[in-house]
């Protein structure tokens, strides 16, 4: 038996070890957790099957030697691999929704999810009147699934350039029993969609990381698919393509909701003829824009 096992008796012991290990290694977070403590709690709860909201009640619970070994190995793997925790557990949580993830997809974290769970209020007054939704760059299909769950009369088309990402999306759609409501398309942005179809809502979380920022990303973010992050010199290549074509696919009074990262000022300067509405929520400011079909300038 490894000699470290006897050093850990309780969950509190492993929690302290994890926090110290993560801090000393200067790990980066942002894939569902924001601090070494949050990450440690998540991994311990995952490995032991504990409810995170009651974690404090279990701090002094004694661990078996088998549990100590598994937790110790998982904590050390997070440090040595520098992979985000969701890739180690194959699960990601977003506003109460659980998704299967692996290294074929970017880890779900879009601020658009926060808007969808609220039914896109106040911009959508009658969710039951929404019939067609498009999710561009769908990745794991997290936003498509949340949209389908919150707009009961809508069907959702979801498209991605990565077939391997769509393979993961299919797993999640089947897990939520939504195969009859969500259709996947393999292609670059709008390329594979039915040409005459119009959408009441288009949601997009496209790649938006500039070339200079890509060079400085920490290992945790570089572990994600490059095609889900990088978007040219200024980080605007995909956004530009979307804005050039989106008017053809929006219905009368249709709405585009698009996440653009920290590029609000650059967006305003580059697309000054587009009357964007910046949507602020308790967790983000000027990272999601809304554009109405009537406000899209002609090319």
The appropriate CATH architecture of the largest domain is 3-Layer(aba) Sandwich
Task: From the 3D structure, determine the CATH topology of the largest domain.
Answer: Rossmann fold
The order of strands across the largest sheet is: 5-4-3-6-7-9-8
Rounded Rg: 21 Å
Q: Give the DSSP E fraction (strand runs of 2 or more residues).
A: 15-25%
Tally of DSSP β-strands: 9
The rounded distance between the terminal residues' Cα atoms is 69 Å
What is the helix/strand order? HHHHEEHEHEHEEHHHEHEE
Mean pLDDT comes to 93
| Count of discrete alpha- or pi-helical segments spanning 4 or more residues | 11
Helix content: 25-40%
CATH homologous superfamily identity of the largest domain: Vaccinia Virus protein VP39
Q: How would you describe this protein?
A:
The protein has 299 residues and is of the alpha/beta class. It folds into two domains: 5-89, Orthogonal Bundle (Helicase, Ruva Protein, domain 3); 103-295, Rossmann fold. 34% of the residues lie in helices and 17% in strands. It has eleven helices and nine strands. It has helices at 11-24, 36-48, 65-81, 85-89, 112-116, 142-150, 163-175, 211-215, 219-222, 237-245, 264-270, and strands spanning 92-94, 97-99, 132-136, 155-160, 182-186, 199-204, 250-259, 277-281, 284-292. The strands form two sheets. A seven-stranded mixed sheet has the order 5-4-3-6-7-9-8. A hairpin with a 2-residue loop joins β8 and β9 (284-292). α1 packs across α2. The termini are far apart. The model has no long low-confidence stretch (mean pLDDT 93).
């Amino acid at each position: 038996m490894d000699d470290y096992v006897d050093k850990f008796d309780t969950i509190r012991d492993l929690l302290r070890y994890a926090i110290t290990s993560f801090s000393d290694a200067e790990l980066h977070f942002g894939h569902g957790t924001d601090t070494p403590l949050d990450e440690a709690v998540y991994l311990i709860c995952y490995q032991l099957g504990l409810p995170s909201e009651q974690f404090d009640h279990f701090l002094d619970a004694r661990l078996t030697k088998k549990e100590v070994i598994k937790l110790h190995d998982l904590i050390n793997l997070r440090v040595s691999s520098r992979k985000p925790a969701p890739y180690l557990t194959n699960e990601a949580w977003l506003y109460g929704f659980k998704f299967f993830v692996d290294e074929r997809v970017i880890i779900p974290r879009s601020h658009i999810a926060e808007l969808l769970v609220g039914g896109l209020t106040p911009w959508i007054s009658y969710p039951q009147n929404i019939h067609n939704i498009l999710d561009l760059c769908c990745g794991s299909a997290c936003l498509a699934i949340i949209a389908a769950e919150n707009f009961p009369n809508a069907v959702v088309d979801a498209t991605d350039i990565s077939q391997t990402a769509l393979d993961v999306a299919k797993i999640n759609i089947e897990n939520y029993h939504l195969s009859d409501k969500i259709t996947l398309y393999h292609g670059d942005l709008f390329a594979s969609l039915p040409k005459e179809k119009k959408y009441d809502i288009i949601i997009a979380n496209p790649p938006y990381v500039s070339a200079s920022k890509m060079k400085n990303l920490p290992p945790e973010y570089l572990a994600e698919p490059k095609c889900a992050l990088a978007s040219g010199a200024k980080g605007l290549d995909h956004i530009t393509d979307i804005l050039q074509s989106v008017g053809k696919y929006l219905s009368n009074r249709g709405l585009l909701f698009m996440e653009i990262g920290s590029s609000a000022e650059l967006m305003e300067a580059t697309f000054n003829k587009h009357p964007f509405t910046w949507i602020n929520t308790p967790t983000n400011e000027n990272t999601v824009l809304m554009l109405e079909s009537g406000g899209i300038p002609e090319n």
